[in-house]
Write a structure and sequence with these properties.
Elements: H1 4-28, H2 36-39
Length: about 60
């Protein structure tokens, strides 16, 4: 029973710290855009100049 006097306040403090950290991240804007980071690797931001590009291989049909 005496363990509850130690474990319960520690659990409440850890839960409160987690809640405060979560609210801080939400207000800071960390969760605003969840789609762009996963798609960013698929988007090629550099444009390739067609005149400096090497000859492309054509497939015979």
């Amino acid at each position: 029973m005496s363990v509850l006097y130690i474990a319960l306040p520690i659990a409440l403090l850890l839960g409160g710290a987690g809640l405060i950290a979560c609210l801080y991240c939400i207000r800071d804007g960390q969760y605003d855009d969840l789609d762009t980071p996963s798609v960013r690797i698929l988007v090629d931001e550099r444009r390739v100049d067609e005149s400096t590009r090497g000859p492309e291989k054509k497939h015979a049909d």
